[in-house]
Design brief:
Blueprint: H1 2-19, H2 22-61, E1 66-70, E2 76-77, H3 78-85, E3 90-104, E4 110-118, H4 120-123, E5 147-150, H5 152-158, E6 164-170, E7 177-184, E8 195-199, H6 200-207, E9 212-213, E10 215-220, H7 226-231, E11 239-242, H8 247-254, H9 256-287, H10 289-297, H11 302-338, H12 359-376, H13 378-385, H14 389-393, H15 408-420, H16 436-451, H17 453-465, H18 474-485, H19 487-525, E12 530-534, E13 537-540, E14 543-548, H20 553-562, E15 565-578, E16 581-588, E17 611-616, H21 617-623, E18 630-633, E19 642-650, E20 659-663, H22 664-671, E21 678-683, H23 689-699, E22 706-710, H24 711-725, H25 727-753, H26 756-764, H27 769-811, H28 821-846, H29 851-856
Parallel strand pairs: 4-8, 5-7, 16-20, 17-19
Antiparallel strand pairs: 1-10, 1-11, 2-9, 3-4, 3-10, 5-8, 6-7, 12-21, 12-22, 13-14, 15-16, 15-21, 17-20, 18-19
Helix pairs in contact: 1-11, 2-8, 2-9, 2-11, 2-12, 2-25, 9-12, 9-13, 9-19, 9-25, 11-12, 11-13, 15-16, 16-19, 16-27, 17-18, 17-19, 17-27, 18-27, 19-24, 19-25, 19-27, 19-28, 25-28, 27-28
Main location: membrane
GO cellular component, one term: plasma membrane
Keywords: Cell membrane, Membrane, Transmembrane, Transmembrane helix
């Protein structure tokens, strides 16, 4: 009955009143729609990317019970495979060889092709996605060592029917390149990047892995548990069998920080929108106070008035959430089509399809929009409950009695600072990789900034009173009295724009600082004119992506003798073990003065028995090392160690999992391996990059065997990737700011229109229409100026938390803060101008009423 009565009252009382506020209500609705849409779209993109990657990994892994691979060894010898395959507890044992090769697409351009060599008869039941899919084709055709099967991504590269494909790969042992021509057989259904499936023997020959395997997929006999079988095995040292890893879960962990940060940013738009809804609801209540009071006299109770207002908010939130979910689905579809969803890691490409609608997530985001809309109406509803009906009907206004205490703002700011300074959670705890305390601190800073607006406004008024003759100027006196009396109302009106401006400033400073730091890092790490490496890859113990193949000695001698470069600096890329974990290694000549150091070098004196190394920030955080500590490196997990001294910590924006940098001479003395994988070349005077590129390719056995890039091209490509990665962030920032600008425009215009009686009285007392507009301009300038100052200060504080806390804890890299003052000033000017212009436009309308009519409204 109460619900039916409320709905009836809404149709008869609220709807006509809301129609007169259609502009503000539509802005509030738009804020909810955009907030829900952005959050839901980001969630859809993330979940689609994870599901697609997990599906692709599952199609390649198959469904074995166990996977046998080398824990500390690089490969599985065939003798061990035969022993396992002959075990009575093993139903199937599928040998797998993995690697990479180069092929040419339909335009003759080289592309990387992942290779999987397998025994079709053993692996068909374990990896059905790798089977040839053509109707009527014989499975025996897959046993032909001269034939390969391409997945859809590889077939798309060829862009049409082709009968043959030449593959070029590097030998796993020597790195020597070799080519082989294969017949193209029926394709397979494996998902993911371009892939070719071929016979295991052919893969071993092409990749230089004769007698060796990368892994063995095992299916146990029916009824036999993995633990039982493992308990009865005595595998050689360095080998182990375990259930196949969950690659989707691994990617989820790697990309967690990126996804959470993007999700938090998208929800900030919804949070800002809720503040706009709060401002609209508060102003709507203030503008309709006489009507609410009259309803109270006619018998509507205080609780019924509050319920009616909450119903208005609920309907607004429900409609906004439904429209937001639909818009979010459309945005995700468009983003997948045009941009792809790569989780910030580059795993996936454009053109993916959304997963079926996740009803659970839709309910969460829809409910969040509804909940925030209701929460935004709680304080206005309390105002209605406490409204003195008789006083309002006499035109004396109403005191909400909800003024915040003066100490609340500073306390929240201090709490936010304290939370931001808390150390991260210990490893192994839930959420240990996320800066949860920093997020809570940022929320406290935002709320504290809003709570401090009245005090800041009064402080600015104190400065205004210092103006010569201020107490004798009517405009300043009126502004002073209203600002002191309505400071709480100003805080509510400024809440949305303050939050959006602070977030925009924070993101602008953070992204700009990151971009400047990356640009400086590229300059320090890429000092040469040209960079050269092999296009071929050799298998790495850390994964199928592989390492750059060593450059052929004959090619190196030819480059040295060519005279193309006045200086050549070689580099070796490899992998090392450190404290039981595998990390990337860069061995090159080290100039400490040019290193992008994250903290001062170790002051420890050099010891002859310790080799100096430089670790990245990610490795420092993972192993809890610091400059001056000692540790050990191993080429393989069971190899003899090299004792090292952590000389310094350097910034590495290229490798998220950690890396070690050491002098090339020390690496060669340790490994007795003088092969190099990259060259840095400083060209001779007058030598152009394009001419040197052509000349260097002519020295190679095949021009496509080497990748050559100029330093400026690498920097431009890196900055392009950076801008593309942060395009979504910039877009979310723009939407949040737009919501805030809509909010200040709606708030200012609503406040001005609600003061028509006041303006009418001023006109009767001798004020001119131009004088009223000057009063509004001064008030709006004061209010918007305070909002801009507060937003700038709060935004700089939030940016400091992002730069010095959130990024180091989330991504394990640091950066230097740099302030893009031109863009910041343009942002502040836009917000200031929007608020003042909105007040002036509304003031022209409000001051245009006849003075008599305006005063008649005052009882």
């Amino acid at each position: 009955m109460a619900v039916a009565r409320s709905l009836s009252w809404f149709a008869q009382l609220s709807w006509p009143a809301l129609r007169h506020q259609a502009g503000r209500q539509l802005l509030a609705l738009l804020a909810i729609v955009l907030g829900v849409a952005l959050g839901f779209a980001v969630h859809l993109l993330n979940s689609t990317a994870l599901a697609e990657f997990g599906s692709a990994a599952a199609s390649l892994q198959g469904k074995p019970d166990l996977v046998l691979r080398g824990d500390t060894a690089e490969s599985v010898p065939e003798a061990l495979y035969f022993k396992v395959a002959a075990d009575p507890g093993v139903a199937l044992a599928s040998p797998i060889v993995e690697g990479q090769a180069l092929a040419q697409d339909a335009q003759g351009k080289p592309f990387s092709l992942r290779l999987i060599g397998w025994d079709l008869l053993q692996g068909a039941a374990l990896n059905p996605a790798l089977l040839p899919q053509a109707a009527g084709s014989s499975l025996l055709a897959g046993l032909d060592p001269a034939q390969l099967s391409l997945n859809p991504a590889a077939q798309q590269k060829l862009a049409g029917p082709a009968s043959q494909l030449r593959l070029r790969a590097a030998s796993a042992g020597s790195g020597q390149a070799q080519s082989q021509l294969f017949q193209i057989g029926p394709g397979n259904a494996a998902a993911g990047t371009p892939l070719a499936v071929l016979d295991v023997a052919a893969a071993q020959a092409l990749l230089g892995k004769l007698g060796r395997l990368d892994r063995v997929d095992i299916r146990l006999a029916a009824g036999l548990q993995a633990k039982q079988w493992l308990a009865g095995q005595a595998l050689p040292p360095g080998f182990g069998a375990a259930p196949p890893p969950d690659e989707g879960q691994r990617l989820s962990q790697i990309s967690q920080a990126y996804r959470v940060n993007l999700g938090v940013l998208s929800l900030m738009a919804l949070f800002t929108g809720s503040l706009l809804v709060f401002a609209v609801m508060s102003l709507s209540v203030a503008q309709r106070l006489p009507q609410w009071a009259l309803l109270g006299v006619l018998g509507m109770t205080a609780a019924e008035r509050a319920r009616l207002l909450l119903l208005e908010a609920a309907l607004l939130g429900a409609l906004g959430s439904l429209l937001g979910l639909a818009l979010g689905w459309g945005l995700a579809q468009a983003a997948l089509h045009w941009l792809g969803a790569n989780l910030g890691l580059g795993q996936l490409s454009a053109g993916l399809a959304l997963q079926p609608l996740p009803w659970g997530a839709a309910l969460v985001f829809g409910g969040l929009g509804l909940l925030l809309s209701l929460a935004s109406a709680v304080l206005p509803a309390l105002t209605l409950r406490r409204m003195p009906v008789a006083q309002v009907l006499k035109g004396l206004g109403a005191d909400s009695g909800l003024q915040l205490p003066a100490w609340l703002g500073p306390v929240l700011l201090l709490a936010g600072l304290g939370l931001a300074l808390l150390p991260p959670l210990p490893p192994g705890w839930p959420g240990a990789e996320l800066p949860l305390a920093a997020y809570a601190g940022m929320l406290c800073l935002l709320l504290g900034g809003i709570a401090c607006v009245p005090q800041l406004l009064r402080a600015c008024l104190g400065l205004l009173r210092l103006w010569p003759g201020a107490h004798r100027q009517a405009l300043i006196v009126l502004v002073d009295e209203r600002a002191r009396d309505q400071a709480g109302e100003a805080s509510r009106a400024l809440a949305g724009v303050l939050v959006s401006l602070a977030l925009s400033v924070a993101m602008l400073v953070m992204v700009g600082s990151f971009r400047d730091s990356l640009n400086l890092w590229l300059t320090q790490m890429l000092p040469a004119d040209l960079y050269l490496r092999s296009s071929l890859r050799v298998s790495s113990a850390g994964g199928v992506d592989g390492l750059s193949a060593p450059l052929p000695p004959a090619f190196l001698r030819a480059v040295q003798a060519s005279g193309l470069a006045q200086r050549i600096a070689p580099q070796r890329s490899d992998e090392v073990w450190m404290q039981g974990q595998r990390y990337a290694l860069l061995a090159r000549a080290v100039d400490e003065a040019q290193l992008p150091l994250a903290e001062p070098l170790s002051a420890a004196s050099h010891r002859q028995d310790l080799t100096p190394i430089y670790i990245s920030e990610a490795l420092r955080d993972a192993l809890r090392l610091k400059p001056g500590d000692t540790s050990e490196l191993r080429l393989r997990a069971a190899a003899p160690p090299l004792k090292v001294l952590v000389r310094g910590v350097w910034r590495d924006y290229a490798r998220q999992s950690g890396a070690v940098l050491m002098p090339l001479a020390a690496y060669q003395a340790w490994t007795q391996d003088e092969r190099v994988t990259e060259l840095q070349l400083w060209l001779a005077p007058g030598q152009s990059s394009d001419a040197a590129n052509r000349a260097l390719r002519a020295l190679a056995v095949q021009g496509d065997d080497v990748e050559i890039a100029a330093s400026e091209d690498l920097r431009a490509l890196s900055m392009k990737i950076f801008d593309r990665s942060f395009a979504v962030t910039v877009w979310l920032q723009g939407v949040t700011l737009a919501i805030g600008l809509f909010g200040i425009a709606a708030s200012q215009s609503a406040q001005v229109l609600a003061r028509r009686r006041e303006f009418g009285l001023l006109l009767h007392l001798g004020f001119s229409r131009a004088g009223v507009l000057r009063l509004l301009t001064l008030e709006a300038a004061l209010l918007c100026g305070v909002g801009c100052l507060a937003g700038l200060g709060l935004g700089l504080g939030l940016s400091a938390v992002l730069i010095w806390v959130v990024n180091p804890q989330s991504f394990h890299w640091s950066m230097d803060m740099s302030l893009p003052w031109p863009r910041l000033l343009a942002l502040l000017l836009a917000v200031f101008a929007a608020g003042v212009l909105a007040a002036l436009l509304a003031g022209r309308r409000a001051a245009g009423f006849a003075a008599v009519q305006s005063v008649k409204e005052d009882w």
